Amino acid sequence: MFALTRDRLWLSFVVMGVLGLGVGVFSAAMPAAILAVTPAEKTSSAMSFNQVVRSVGFSIGSALGGLTLAAETPVGATFPTDTGYTTAAWVGAGAMAVTVVTALALRQASRREPAPRSSLLG
Q1: How far apart are CA 88 and CA 84, in angstroms?
Q2: Entry's SUPFAM superfamilies (predicted)?
Q3: How far apart, in whole angstroms, are the C-alpha atoms of residue 105 and residue 43?
């Protein structure tokens, strides 16, 4: 939305609010989802891994946005060009698309793998 409709400030606020709400709800629900599928003895590792991945994702997203805007800032100018904001929004959307496709591919791969056999059974 930001790439296409930056001319209406109220719409940007609405979109940012919805996105913020989505991130907040997702971040709050993720620990419960992780705990539901993780053995009790591995919960601390799983939660730590979630925090690290989340922090790395936020850092990469911020770095990509900043780099894109810096590359689109003319020499001596204070702010990037309008095209820079559009480019940064599309780079962010592309990164999100890659993340979604990767997550879906990993999910499908984990469903196809046979369950490990216990050494006690076999």
Answers
A1: 6
A2: MFS general substrate transporter
A3: 24
* Rounded Cα–Cα distance for residues 33 and 9 (Å): 36
Per-10-residue mean pLDDT for the chain, 122 residues long? Answer: 75 85 87 89 91 90 92 93 90 90 86 58 48
For 119, the token pair is 């050494």
pTM of the model as a whole: 0.67
Question: In the 8-state DSSP scheme, what is residue 2?
Answer: T
Q: What angle do CA 41, 44, 45 make, to 5 degrees?
A: 95
- Spans of all domains in the chain: 9-112
Residue tagged 């979604």 (tokens): 100
